[in-house]
Amino acid sequence: MVKKNVLVVDDEEDILELIRFNLAREGYQVFCAVSGEDALKLAQEKPIDLIVLDLMLPGIDGLEVARCLKTDLTTKKIFIVMLTAKGEEADIVTGLELGADDYITKPFSPRVLVARVKAVLRREGKEQLDDSSILMIRDLVIHPGRHEVLLNGKHVLLTFTEFGILHYLAKRPGWVFTRSQILDAVRGDDYFVTDRSVDVQIVGLRKKLDPAGKYIETVRGVGYRFRE
């Protein structure tokens, strides 16, 4: 099995070493950087698969690093797991909207961080999921071609927008999406969707999917995800 290359970016040496040690123990090839400038340089020079990126960096901060990575054709497909301090909800939302794939708040458990890294890397290849592919998740079947949802074999009647939101979230279980991301991806003709009305749509969707509505989880201060 080919080793995955992970770049860890943090200006605190003890945290950097803690993450490096735990990822290396799991078999990853780990590179380290203590600044945003070094991170961008390494991302260009090495075949990096994922970056564990602290947002609070000297010089170029983590959000600017993420922005640069996602606007460069050579690095835009690199997965990003953000490290944030508690209470930085605005930064989390901004990072996710820039294209980050997950986030972990400090202080964190090394085991949880490794598990999150593994989960994100498992998504590789799923990015190419065809929008016409039938999704079969537990007791749910989502058929994009037919615009059809079955729950335990029974049809669930959804509006255009409700179906779009469900399909968008279910294609990437475990991913957290902001209301703005959902809004950009799903604009139903039957409903004028705004950030606030995304919440209304989710409430209606959960009600119709009962008891499978619990699969759609609220991530407080950020948005929604489909349970992994």
Number of domains: 2
Overall radius of gyration? 19 Å
Spatial arrangement of strands, main beta sheet: 2-1-3-4-5
The CATH superfamily of the largest domain is identified as: Response regulator
Provide a count of the helices.
8
Class of secondary structure makeup: alpha/beta
> Which stretches are low in confidence, meaning pLDDT under 50 for 5 or more residues running?
none
The percentage of residues in β strands lies in: 15-25%
Tell me the overall shape.
Answer: elongated
CA distance, first residue to last residue: 24 Å
Q: Roughly what percent helix?
A: 25-40%
- Write down the overall mean pLDDT: 86
Please give the CATH class of the largest domain: Alpha Beta
What's the architecture of the largest domain in CATH terms?
3-Layer(aba) Sandwich
Written as H for each helix and E for each strand, in order along the chain, the element string is EHEHEHEHEHEEEEHEHHEE
